[in-house]
Amino acid sequence: MAFSPIKFISEKTKELKVKIGNSRAIIATSGGVDSMTCAMLARKSLGENIVVLFLDDGLMREGEPEEVRKFFESVGINLEIWDVKESFFEALKGKVDPEEKRIAFRDTFYRTLGQAVKSYSVDFLIQGTIAADIVETQKGIKTQHNVLSQIGLNPATFGLQVVEPLRELYKHQVREVAKKLGLPNKFAERKPFPGPGLATRIIGEVVPERVEKIRKATKIVEMSITGASIFQVMAVLLSDKATGMVQGKRMLGDIIAIRAVESKDALTASPCKIPWATLFKVRDRILKEVPGVVKVVYDITPKPPSTIEYI
Ligand code: XMP
Questions:
Q1: 90-94, 132-136, 174-178, 184-188: segment of lowest average pLDDT
Q2: Which atom of ligand 1 is nearest to the CA of 310?
Q3: Same domain, 55 and 116
Q4: Between 20 and 30 A from 198 (CA), which of 109, 156, 213, 234?
Q5: In this structure, are 60 and 165 located in the same domain?
Q6: Final residue of a domain: which of 188, 218, 244?
Q7: Is residue 96 included in any domain, yes or no?
Q8: Which CATH number do you get for residue 85?
Q9: Secondary structure of 194-244 in HEC code, one letter for each residue
Q10: Separation CA 282–CA 211 (nearest Å)
Q11: Which residues line ligand 1 (CB under 6 A)?
């Protein structure tokens, strides 16, 4: 039977109301479609009894907190923003192993959320976990930061009761629900962006200076490589250096990889055939606007064997 977003919304708003009743719930939003859909669904079901929180962890895309705040303001929802950049950078300091970085991010995220739960006196956390997150975590490929029980975290440790209204849905279904809930296309059709943010796009240590580079490159690729067939597009900062030539002098510089994939559910993916002209434009902008980059490469690997993200 075809998926009906209207039926889904009607069922889930009732279900949330039964589960949460007159208690209060918090939704941490990152500006991604899953968490924003959760916020809209929760608002519809629970009215004023929700707190929508944006943890500004320093790993978001350019302008993200402002964009998200503007949207929620426009629909009458107050967005709480916590500047927690320092604690995230402190937790990630010195870590180069992908799994260690994911764990550092996850622990800091849930510890901070635990503080928010106490400070806003809420009883429930509504989280935008979707079906692909669960499948991937079951396979044990990566520590997906948001499937608490599967990664051996007891939500009660963080003072949380977790509710996951989107857990049966795949991304394309979440987008349908998002639109029906009034999220503009800008958010409903947004490319997926992982919870640990730009930290997943950096090989090696995640420090503010390196994040700044990949934030600039991300903006360039997202603006230039567009189209309905693209599931996700990203720029990744590698940890190796390459020899370059700047103003006639030898210089060791950074390497940035561009990755654009087609996919339906993120479980498998294939590289997009981007026109050379587009790639050349992106290359020129990255070389000009991102300091210290001497090499730009395009990744042609499918998933499997590669994953979509680099860590
Ligand atoms: P991979 O890299 O595992 O990614 O092929 C599959 C999809 O999941 C996203 N992703 C994440 N999303 N928390 C998330 O919310 C995470 O820790 C995480 N890691 C990967 C990735 O962007 C892709 O869409």
A1: 132-136
A2: 2
A3: yes
A4: 156
A5: yes
A6: 188
A7: yes
A8: 3.40.50.620
A9: CCCHHHHHECCCCCHHHHHHHHHHHHHHHHHCCCCCCCEEEEEEEEEEEEE
A10: 19
A11: 136, 141-142, 144-146, 192, 194-196, 200, 232, 266, 303, 307-309
Residues 222 and 182 in one domain: no
Atom 10 of ligand 1 has which residue's CA nearest to it?
194
Which residue is closest in CA terms to ligand 1's atom 7? Answer: 266
Q: Is the pLDDT of residue 145 over 60?
A: no
Atom of ligand 1 nearest to the CA of 141: 3
Query: Which pLDDT belongs to residue 191?
Result: 86
- Domain boundary pick from 141, 165, 188: 188
Q: What percent of the chain has pLDDT over 90?
A: 81
pTM of full prediction above 0.85: yes
Residue nearest (by alpha carbon) to ligand 1 atom 12: 194
**Structural domain boundaries enclosing 262:** 202-298
Q: Is the dihedral of CA 254, 300, 229, 265 positive or negative?
A: negative
How deeply is 123 buried, as exposed, middle or buried, from its count of CB atoms within 10 A (0-12, 13-18, 19+)?
middle
Task: Report the separation in Å between the CA atom of 178 and the middle of ligand 1, taken as the mean of its atom positions.
Answer: 19
Ligand 1 atom closest to Cα of residue 105: 17
**Residue of 35, 139, 144 to mutate, ligand 1, most atoms within 8 A of C-beta:** 144
